[in-house]
User: Fold these one by one.
Assistant:
Number 1:
Amino acid sequence: MEFKNAIHALNGSTRLDAPVYMVIPRAGCSGCISTAEKYMIEYLEDNKKQSKIKFILTDFDSQKVLLARFGSIARNQHVIIDPQNIFRANQSLKSIYPTIFLFKNDELVKVTEISPEKDGQAELNMFLKTVTGI
């Protein structure tokens, strides 16, 4: 599976540490990206929820700018920085929208996005309620 291959390229393992991964590109639909970034910040500030979602930041020009923009959030253990833009370079994973990968028992069950056509945030919240009990 392409997602697991990209994770392996980032951290050397195909092991999934969370049931949800949200890939947030730097460039694309700015409103959608802003919504995803806000969600990420709020989610990571809520210490009770931090084990369910990993956030992958990709397609950025400079890690220094990324760190300046997000501060300590970018250093959170639930944030994965993609310095080689592996997710952006992979045509099957590439999107101008924040993309959400939902897993159950290490198997991909759904891919959605935060876009004008899809309410990925609502789908994510529903998934968390039904699958993980949050």
Number 2:
Amino acid sequence: MIMSPTTNLYLSILLLLSLTVSADDTRILFDFITNLTNTQTLNWETIPAPICAGNFSNWTAVLCRDGHISGLQLENMRLSGPINVPVLVPLNLFSLSLANNSFSGPFPADINKLTRLRRLYLGHNKFSGSIPDKAFNGMTALKEVHLANNGFVGKIPSSLIRMQQLSNLSFQNNQFEGKIPDFWQEGLLANFSNNRLRGAIPDVLSYENASMFSGNLGLCGPPLSPCPKIWYRKTAFIAAASASAAAAVALISILLLLWRRRRTRPLRYQKSVNQFKNEATKTENFNAIHDKTEELGKIQFVRSGRERFELEDLLKAAAEVLGSGSFGSSYKALLLTGKPYVVRRFKQMSNVGKEDFYYHMKKLGRVTHPNLLPLVAFYYKKEEKLLISDFVENGSLASHLHGKRKPDQPGLDWPTRLRIVKGVARGLAHLYAEFPSLALPHGHLKSSNVLLDSAFEAVVSDYALAPVINRDHAQEFMVAHKSPESMQSDRVTRKTDVWSLGILILEVLTGRFPANYLKSGRGPGADLATWVNSVVREEWTGEVFDKEMGLGRSCEGQMLRLLKIGMCCCESNVEKRWGMDEAVARIEELKEREGDEDYSSYASEGEGYSSASRAVTDDDFSFSKAS
């Protein structure tokens, strides 16, 4: 067969590139073991490049995937000497194991420079000393840390708490002391036996076997013996005092608000009707809302046919603090009539004028859709505002995805999650139609702002508030301003809500919380979209899907399609990102299940997914044209 000069050139370039990559990897590996002892068991001197051939490695202790080095498994070799972590950074390792060797001295410095590392094995060595509290900062992909059978002392690093994908810890047979950090990662498996730990075992670990905590100085609580009553009473007292204090502060705040309103009304609002009318003619909309002085300082209702009440009625109601966020506090108020409402208190709306605020609230009052939480009423004051809406009984999507549950309590299954995503999409589509000129029809879409009614239908809240939120506060806390385009160029577009929808979809499918939403700053933090892309393209799809969905053979195709939709919505390039119409149309095409696809080629990686663990290909993500 005679190849053309162009073909020959193409093949030569590919060969040159592969040799260059292999040469670089070879140099890195040899630099890493240069100062280590007992490396004679390695065959690296005698085996030529290439190191990797697909998923097969020609070199001892080197793991490969798709022709690239993915890990080092230098185990049971009696290795010792300095561990040169920085030299490994260019390899982007997923796994590093130095277990069952003779390494000694402190915890390896700069281990957190291996930012893509998922599994770290340092057990059965002679390491000693304390581990820096920030040792794992930045390792957002970390899933497993094995440090058993060493001589580590001091406290367990709290930086591990921020690793949202953490699933396995082996810290047994060391000399760690102090309390076990308050881990929150659901499904975490951990062994802390035979250390010097004290205090209560975190709730998320209370379902572990008791042997995982044996041999410590003073651990207590499930699955071990109850904590001493003195300690327990103290903890209970602090918890009760904190809850009471929060409720008291909320109640006092409303009392003071009402008291100030009553005292100032004769001085500030004692005007004639003519004076008020002259002031009200600044905008025709303002005059339509307020046509008499008696209404000033009262709750303003924006919907007809709804129960009417005063601020005093809210004050008399049975109150419950629901939470406190970056925009303000939320309270559940049960009126004497038996009707519950949610009262949101905002302090970051002081920059908008009174007329503009009333006008925007009236526009929100006209929004009606089954998947959007209706605004019922509001209260205006210069320095703070109250927004009143209906109470939704099943709480937020975030609480169902990430709240602590007992092992026998079911999570949200796939049909329910798909129904929720469709409801969110329909609500957003309606917002985009209602506010055609608004840059951010939602602006703060996240799982805690998606409520679930009694039938687990999605009810989207906190929408269209960007025009009345102080800009500096919005830029710091609103989810829209954590999007790639906002962080890169401080701009948002109508596609920014699509990015938020994509993150929400990935959160629903993976069960993992987008950690950057927890930050007050605008840094990307643990990027859920980046993680999903890396797993889908480099590993097996089974690592993506939340096990609690109840994966079934008949629904995998639809789940893959929704995963692709989420990834297309999370495209960092705004020009390439789908618009809202496209995203909603593709979501509406999805079904709960399909029975005519061939899934016989599925493979498993052995992590609990017998059929959903195959690698994703572009064919899996093909779509029919949206009608």
